[in-house]
């Protein structure tokens, strides 16, 4: 993967390639417990970095603690150019449930858990994961939570702050408290609720990092995507990623996979050019029966 083929975008002070890696799929089933195969989880992380990935997304609530410890075991001491973005705002129940943990004390504990499990003195970037609704933003002030993280940033524990699962109004509110370098929301070629927010963040120079870029736990299935992929002699998932790269220059990708073959396919999407008329064909994929 070369910078020429993927382009780069700045996450705060750090340039990253536009295709990174999302580590969530490395934990056990339901993002709970250890991976199926510890050795192959380490191998995927090492191969990602060897192939040029310099942006990894994680959280201490994946596992919990599992993906951060795998990243530490596979990659520490970290290459200078690697940016690890984590998120706080939830804890896991013993039954694998995802529970909000948004008080200042819980956020502080989560930051310290991430520091310890990743083995760093400062976290490159921390997203406040808002938990109102599990996969879609809901309105309401996030000032108390974001102020708590801004305080940890002032203490030198966090380099950059971001947000996840938020509305445009919440982004604006957070920016009155501290700079926001990235926003991570649910978005892909089929799921386009955030179109207006993507455009707003492009104008503001803030990275938009879609979660579920390939559809998440139920990967995208679309006849139209399959047809386009066949025409371009590519895989449907590569078309879905290339569409996101073409959508806006501030979109950074963190596709998740537990498969080295899929990792290579996903990184190769950087060099898949989609002609304009094909982009137009994909444009309305969310509005019509696929
Ligand atoms: N902020 C948030 O609230 C939030 C929420 C969810 C996720 N995230 C982050 O976003 C990252 C991406 O999301 P995600 O992993 O949930 O979903 P995703 O990237 O949309 O899709 C992952 C799924 O697609 C499959 N897949 C990946 N590459 C493929 C390929 N080339 N061909 C066919 N199938 C492929 C994976 O299975 P295989 O393992 O078999 O490849 C997995 O089932 C996560 O890893 C995590 O870091 C953030």
Question: Outline of this structure?
Answer:
With 290 residues, this protein is α/β, with parallel strands linked by helices. The protein has helices at residues 3-6, 38-50, 66-75, 104-118, 143-154, 168-175, 195-204, 223-232, 236-247, 260-268, 276-283; strands spanning 8-11, 14-17, 21-22, 55-57, 83-88, 90-92, 98-100, 123-129, 158-164, 182-184, 207-208.
Question: Could you name the key traits of this structure?
Answer:
disordered N terminus, 15% strand, 290 residues, alpha/beta, single chain, 11 strands, binds NADP nicotinamide-adenine-dinucleotide phosphate
Q: Please, could you describe this protein's structure?
A:
Helices cover 38% and strands 15% of the residues. The protein has one domain (15-283): NADP-dependent oxidoreductase domain (TIM Barrel, Alpha-Beta Barrel). The radius of gyration is 18 Å and the shape is globular. Strands 3-4-5-8-9-10-11 form a seven-stranded parallel sheet, with helices on one face. Strands 1-2 form a two-stranded antiparallel ribbon. Residues 1-5 have low confidence and may be disordered. It has helices spanning 3-6, 38-50, 66-75, 104-118, 143-154, 168-175, 195-204, 223-232, 236-247, 260-268, 276-283, and strands at 8-11, 14-17, 21-22, 55-57, 83-88, 90-92, 98-100, 123-129, 158-164, 182-184, 207-208. It is built from eleven helices and eleven strands. With 290 residues, it is an alpha/beta fold. Helix 4 crosses helix 5. The protein binds NADP nicotinamide-adenine-dinucleotide phosphate. Residues 22-25, 57, 87, 129, 164-165, 184, 211-216, 219, 237, 254-259, 262, 265-266 line the site of NADP nicotinamide-adenine-dinucleotide phosphate (NAP). NADP nicotinamide-adenine-dinucleotide phosphate (NAP) is lined by residues 22-25, 57, 87, 129, 164-165, 184, 211-216, 219, 237, 254-259, 262, 265-266.
């Amino acid at each position: 993967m070369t910078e020429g083929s993927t382009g780069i975008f700045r996450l705060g002070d750090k340039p990253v390639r536009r295709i990174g890696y999302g580590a969530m799929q490395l934990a056990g089933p339901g993002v709970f417990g250890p991976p199926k195969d510890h050795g192959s989880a380490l191998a995927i992380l090492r191969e990602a970095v060897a192939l040029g990935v310099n942006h990894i997304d994680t959280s201490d609530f994946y596992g919990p603690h599992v993906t951060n410890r795998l990243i530490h075991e596979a990659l520490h001491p970290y290459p200078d150019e690697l940016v690890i973005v984590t998120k706080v705002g939830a804890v896991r129940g013993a039954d694998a449930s995802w529970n909000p943990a948004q008080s200042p004390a819980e956020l502080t504990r989560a930051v310290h858990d991430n520091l310890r499990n990743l083995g760093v003195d400062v976290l490159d970037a921390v997203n406040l994961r808002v938990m109102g609704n599990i996969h879609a933003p809901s309105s309401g002030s996030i000032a108390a939570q974001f102020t708590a993280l801004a305080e940890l940033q002032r203490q030198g524990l966090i380099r950059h702050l971001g947000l996840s699962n938020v509305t445009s109004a919440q982004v604006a509110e957070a920016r009155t408290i501290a700079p926001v370098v990235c926003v991570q929301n649910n978005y892909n070629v089929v799921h386009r609720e955030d179109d207006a927010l993507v455009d707003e963040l492009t104008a503001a120079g803030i990275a938009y990092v879609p979660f579920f870029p390939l559809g998440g736990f139920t990967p995208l299935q679309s006849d139209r995507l399959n047809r386009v992929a066949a025409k371009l002699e590519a895989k449907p998932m590569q078309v879905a990623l290339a569409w996101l790269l073409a959508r806006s220059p501030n979109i950074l990708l963190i596709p998740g996979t537990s498969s080295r073959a899929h990792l290579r396919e996903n990184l190769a999407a950087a060099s898949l050019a989609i002609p304009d008329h094909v982009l137009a064909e994909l444009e309305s994929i969310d509005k019509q029966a696929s």
